[in-house]
């Protein structure tokens, strides 16, 4: 199918019918069942079909994986390779991911319901790009030499931290994982990847590709598991050096407790968000801003940590702008995820759908005005679909505007002055991202500076690539993924001081 330029839904369905689903954990270079023999059902949100039964790991498997990872690390089989060699192997890993793009994209779509066009370009394509960029950087990161008196030499070097556990969410299963495992592997660490129980398939599949690329046994392990057991066992483990997490703020806080109660492992957190998207009346192109606002709340069915779910519009243009957003949302209505024309697919599972529908009901009870959407769709398919939903007359004090819904629900608020926009934008426990639309350079920069968020976009939404660090202020987390800053999470800095006789 790779040779065909524009595969159809039928092509994807045919490929899906022949697909083998990975279902075992990957430890020490081998695919293995959980020691308990337990499994959990992996359901597709497209139609509620059970795709496969996946190994449900627990504490015993965590011990086994940590041992394998520690042994590989201490042996030096990976960390002591010349940087150029590690780079070559990670580039091969990227090539193998790209070569298996269709299979991986299909696994991602079947597993968590996102449209195949985005699984292919954003998730799998993006993962290969993350690996390539990071691999290319390996042999370009230098240490430092301290300014010393003539009889001393001070060297500041980076060393791999050891065993890194990456616990990741289900919204971009492979891509979020790659933001962790690429820099961790690049710096010479051993990695244990713990995918979400809602989307374990691609993580399991790429473990075999990592081995094929030449990553030594024990350096890259994948541990799926149902519920919190295996994640908790890894987070509390005395022989894990670093925990890198992407997920909800509630679990992020719990991981800090686990680390504090165990060995004070380093904890890096990418957590939730409720990002403000500020549109001033003098935005250079209101239609473009409206399209970006629609995409910013609806993309990936709104299951994006940086989703622009609080739209702050200057009061004088509110009605006209909301009309433009609602119009732009027509193309973001859900369709079948395997149809290449579909821009929006299914919500990840029934639990998440129920949560989203609950907030839609709540918004109406709280007195916000339902301006678009609000309905569940395609119920008879057995899958989980909901219309992108817009509430106007929202206030920051309402639950729909204050809490992360992680679904396609937009709260529209208004402001009259720049100061008011900034105050409202910052009135949140989160600080992941924010956007500002204005033609006034002064206003753009003043607002951008005042926003308490790790990423600020001016006259675009969700801009940036691998060169830009990504992470949160406040309860959106600490540390940064992507760019050279990502290496800080996976290295210790050593000062070596030498006296010359
Ligand atoms: P989640 O916090 O429920 O789960 C994330 C991961 O943690 C999963 O692998 C889960 O199995 C594991 N986990 C859950 N409880 C655990 C425990 N007690 N101990 C150890 N591991 C545990 O999040 P989710 O529902 O998978 O993902 C959605 C959340 O992720 C949203 O809040 C979203 O904002 C956030 N997210 C953040 C970013 C970012 O970069 N800041 C990116 C994507 C998603």
Provide structural commentary.
With 501 residues, the protein is an alpha/beta fold. 37% of the residues lie in helices and 19% in strands. Strand 12 (276-279), helix 10 and strand 13 (310-314) form a beta-alpha-beta unit. The longest helix has 22 residues, at 116-137. The protein is globular, with a radius of gyration of 23 Å. Bound molecules: nicotinamide-adenine-dinucleotide. Nicotinamide-adenine-dinucleotide binds at residues 167-171, 176, 194, 196-197, 228, 231-232, 235, 246-248, 251, 254, 270-273, 305, 404, 406, 432, 472, 476-477.
What Rg, in angstroms, do the CA atoms define?
23 Å
What is the percent of helical residues? 25-40%
Shape: globular
The number of helical segments is 15
- Ranges with pLDDT <50 over ≥5 residues? none
> How would you characterize the largest beta sheet?
7 strands, mixed
CATH superfamily of the largest domain: Aldehyde Dehydrogenase, Chain A, domain 1
- Tell me the span between the first and last alpha carbons: 69 Å
CATH architecture of the largest domain: 3-Layer(aba) Sandwich
- Averaging pLDDT over every residue, what do you get? 97
Q: Order of strands in the sheet with the most strands?
A: 14-17-18-13-12-19-20
Bound compounds: nicotinamide-adenine-dinucleotide
Number of domains: 2
For the secondary structure, the number of strands is: 21
CATH topology of the largest domain, by name, is Aldehyde Dehydrogenase, Chain A, domain 1
Structural class: alpha/beta
Strand content: 15-25%
User: According to CATH, what is the class of the largest domain?
Assistant: Alpha Beta
């Amino acid at each position: 199918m790779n040779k065909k330029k524009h595969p159809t839904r039928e092509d994807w369905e045919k490929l899906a019918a022949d697909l083998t689903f990975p279902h075992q954990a990957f430890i020490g270079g081998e695919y293995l069942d959980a020691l308990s023999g337990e499994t959990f059902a992996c359901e597709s949100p497209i139609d509620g079909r059970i795709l496969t039964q996946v190994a449900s790991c627990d504490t015993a498997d965590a011990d086994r994986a940590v041992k394998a990872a520690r042994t590989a690390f201490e042996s030096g089989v990976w960390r002591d390779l010349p940087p150029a060699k590690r780079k070559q192997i990670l580039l091969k890993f990227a090539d193998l991911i790209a070569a298996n793009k269709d299979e991986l994209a299909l696994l991602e779509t079947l597993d968590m319901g996102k449209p195949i066009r985005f699984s292919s370009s954003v998730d799998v394509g993006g993962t290969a790009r993350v690996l390539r960029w990071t691999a290319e950087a390996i042999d370009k990161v230098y240490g430092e030499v301290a300014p010393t008196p003539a009889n001393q030499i001070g060297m500041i070097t980076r060393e791999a931290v050891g065993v890194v556990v990456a616990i990741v969410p289900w919204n971009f299963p492979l891509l979020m994982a790659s933001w962790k495992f690429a820099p961790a592997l690049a710096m010479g660490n051993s990695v244990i990847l713990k995918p979400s129980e809602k989307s374990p398939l691609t993580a399991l599949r790429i473990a075999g590709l990592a081995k094929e690329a030449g990553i030594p046994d024990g350096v890259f392990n994948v541990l799926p598991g149902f519920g919190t057991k295996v994640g908790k066992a890894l987070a509390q483990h005395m022989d894990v050096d670093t925990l890198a997490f992407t997920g909800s703020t509630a679990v992020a806080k719990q991981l800090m407790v686990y680390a504090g109660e165990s060995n004070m492992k380093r904890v890096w957190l990418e957590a939730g968000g409720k990002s403000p998207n500020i549109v001033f009346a003098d935005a250079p192109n209101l239609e473009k801003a409206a399209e970006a606002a629609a995409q910013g709340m609806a993309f990936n069915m709104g299951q994006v940590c940086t989703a622009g779910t609080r739209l702050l519009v200057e009061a004088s243009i509110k009605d006209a702008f909301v009309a433009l957003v609602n119009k732009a949302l027509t193309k973001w209505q859900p369709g079948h995820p395997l149809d290449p024309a579909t821009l929006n697919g299914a919500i990840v599972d029934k639990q998440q759908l129920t949560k989203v529908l609950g907030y839609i009901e709540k918004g109406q009870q709280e007195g916000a005005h339902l301006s678009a959407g609000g309905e569940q769709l395609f119920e008879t398919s057995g899958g989980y679909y909901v219309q992108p939903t817009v509430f106007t007359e929202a206030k920051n004090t309402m639950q729909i505007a204050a809490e992360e819904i992680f679904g396609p629900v937009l709260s529209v608020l208004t402001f009259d002055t720049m100061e008011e926009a900034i105050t409202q934008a910052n009135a949140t426990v989160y600080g992941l991202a924010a956007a500002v639309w204005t033609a006034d350079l002064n206003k753009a920069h003043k607002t951008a500076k005042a926003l308490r968020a790790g990423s600020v976009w001016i006259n675009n939404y969700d801009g940036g690539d691998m060169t830009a660090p990504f992470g949160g202020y406040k309860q959106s987390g600490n540390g940064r993924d992507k760019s050279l800053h990502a290496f800080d999470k996976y290295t210790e800095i050593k000062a070596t001081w030498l006296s010359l006789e």
